[in-house]
Design a protein that fits this description.
single chain, elongated, two-stranded antiparallel ribbon
């Protein structure tokens, strides 16, 4: 109801400017301002065709019009969100495939020491697996920031960047040996992804 209240109080529309009369002066760009509530009332019959048989049409149909606009905006945001998930998923899997199959070639770009290359070829495929859930977490974080769910977005960012990742890095070698440190980022990103999905489903999308 907050959006309805704000619309009644502050939203305005502008009529088309009157035909410019000959003489000096610039023609007006906009006509008189009209409150949205007054606009809905004055064009009630036009809106009634979109909401046939509803009592709301006789009350100025502010609520159904705004609800319809809100639903359309939510659908657009969710569509863009899904596209972002798909694109990032494809890119992250592609990057992982390159690092998995061409790990030695990639490592040699930065260091040609044989011992380091041998060690890195063991670690890189395990470490780079974290890129896949990390790409999804970044989309969830940006999506929540853009829809005014700042607290939830900060929880995801801090969890994957500091809290869960730190715990994972410290605990994985203790529990599973030293080599397990390379999959610690993957575990941290997966736990954060579960948290992000839960927060996205349990919080309301807000847009401006």
């Amino acid at each position: 109801m907050e959006i309805v209240t704000k619309a009644k109080r502050s939203c305005v529309a502008f009529e088309k400017p009157a035909p410019h009369k000959a003489g000096r002066g610039r023609p007006p760009k906009k006509g008189p301002a009209v409150r949205q509530q007054e606009l809905f009332l004055s064009h009630k019959e036009d809106y009634r065709m979109y909401f046939p048989g509803t009592e709301a049409a006789d009350r100025g149909i502010v609520l159904p019009v705004l609800v319809k606009a809100y639903a359309q905006s939510v659908n657009v945001y969710n569509l863009l969100f899904r596209h972002g998930i798909i694109v990032n998923l494809i890119l992250s899997i592609s990057i992982y495939g390159i690092l998995f199959f061409f790990d030695e070639s990639v490592i040699c770009i930065f260091n040609k020491d044989s011992n380091l290359v041998q060690t890195a070829t063991i670690a890189l495929p395990m470490f780079s697996l974290s890129f896949i859930p990390m790409a999804l977490n970044l989309i969830y974080t940006d999506f929540m920031f853009s829809t005014k769910r700042t607290a939830q977005a900060n929880v995801i960012a801090i969890s994957r960047g500091i809290v869960i990742k730190s715990i994972s890095i410290f605990c994985m070698p203790i529990l599973f040996g030293n080599n397990a440190i390379w999959i610690a980022p993957l575990i941290a990103e997966l736990i954060t992804l579960i948290l992000a999905v839960g927060l996205n489903k349990t919080t309301k999308l807000i847009y401006k």
